[in-house]
Amino acid sequence: MTEIQSQKRGRVPRWTEFRTISGRVTERQWSKLTNLCQHLISKNRKARLDDPTITLERITNNTLIRVAIELLLEVENSLHGTTEAELLASAKAALNHPANPE
Known about the structure:
extended; mainly alpha; 102 residues
């Protein structure tokens, strides 16, 4: 649903619920994140052509960053390390082998 559609239905746009933050990423991370975002948008549009009942939500780099944050929060008790590389390794290990599978 677009922002205009949200307003017409009396809903507050989702982005107004989010806090603005600033972060630094590498050029590689930003490029790959942007490419992934574009790929997902294209894939979702194609799926919508096959099934017009699918509701499309706007996917942005910020959407993917929020998803990544949620994944980190799911394994927060498994994170350990004193460097970015060590934290990343522990996060990957936790995501590959969750301690409490549902």
